[in-house]
Design the sequence.
């Protein structure tokens, strides 16, 4: 089970002429969920950049596509901390079809996502330790 | 007739589940053509930003979609200067289906595009006059 | 004032290296708002396609970009019917910065959008009259 | 070394406000390279769909991001067959910075990509064996 779930609606922009969500767009959905997961913990990425000079970057991503998602479907994108380090965090981000007939009840698993996010200096792009309050929030999720 | 044409191939990323190119993506194709039009005239946008502190931004865009473009088709995107001012340029950017059976021969008109591009300060986003060498190249196309 | 407003959060996927929302992405935001406007009126586009064989396509779009939107900002995208015809509807879709300090209070106008949407046959792409229940809902918004 | 390389120019549409190519867009670049790799071997994906009723879908993707790519840079995206099966093919798709000062000379490695592509029925989305001529071309690359 995920620590956090974010709803994503599939619009035309997300689909391709195969009739399903274009495979690269799952990475976008996963980043939306990460941004909202941080926001829910009081972490504003624009403030982090302005005040601490750090941004988050994806250093590794892996996706297993199990079943296609289609136009107008409602998805749920999870965020679960698998491992947190000084300057990086490894996350599970599975994507489920939302069963709209039942409240908050997750349906079929569509894709398994794994992402490593690194905290980097916004100028030099070198790894930087997570600011303390960020680290506390992230560790709190393990 | 356009001053400049740039070929664009339609990939899955460009299409939607309607089976055709997603309407917003024509704006991407038009910007690719503008970037290559500038490059063909020796104008490097990354150098312009680093050396002159200016970037180009779209201030107005208009698109009439006449016929759909499909996966795997070859398109040609035009760039034609309609009017050049001190800090902006108004361009026609029509999009044709490339007839791949005939060399360089334009086929059906798919979309009519009109775009106004403004030269702005990369920091303040305020309009700035085009650098002289840019202006010369742009005016040379009228 | 718009008949309908839809909130859009700006994520990294929406921005470009100019530091602001990439201009083509406003068209995506506008389509999300149209899809949710239809959904709020009980119109499911996937059902329309399956049951009536029609889809909606953009035939004309116009955008005036007034002020840039930035990463992490909250926007509101409007939908207002300007004119409804047998097989098409002309919409105003202005985009405002959401003032997050005040409840539901619209802030600065960022972009003015105008879009014409046509009801077309999903196979032939020829214009088809809006199904009656769609037309009633759309006209109800004038 | 790759069996096939495809040049990709970085435009504004590809970047994000971090100043670099948005991580999901590498998957787009990789699909462009696969499409052109197939085209170079005489395989037209639109014809395959029309005549054989099959399309290609990504079932697994993995990306290691080593160094960022920036606006206006020229990249080269490789396609190398690692393993071919009856209905799927596993590919290495590394992305290099193109050294524009030297002809065709690959520069720095930016990202390592691995993708599994499955041949599926365009209607049922069930795996189907590659058509013979496709299989011959793909195996020819091992």
Sequence:
């Amino acid at each position: 089970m995920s620590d956090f779930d974010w709803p994503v609606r599939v619009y035309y922009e997300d689909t391709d002429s195969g009739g399903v969500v274009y495979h690269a767009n799952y990475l976008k959905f996963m980043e939306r969920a990460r941004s909202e997961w941080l926001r829910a913990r009081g972490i504003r990425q624009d403030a982090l950049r302005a005040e601490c000079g750090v941004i988050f970057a994806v250093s590794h991503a892996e996706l297993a596509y199990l079943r296609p998602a289609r136009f107008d479907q409602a998805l749920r994108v999870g965020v679960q901390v698998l491992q947190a380090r000084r300057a990086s965090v490894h996350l599970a981000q599975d994507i489920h079809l939302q069963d709209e007939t039942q409240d908050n009840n997750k349906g079929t698993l569509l894709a398994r996502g794994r992402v490593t996010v690194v905290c980097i200096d916004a100028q030099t792009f070198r790894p930087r330790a997570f600011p303390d309050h960020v680290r506390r929030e992230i560790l709190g999720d393990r």
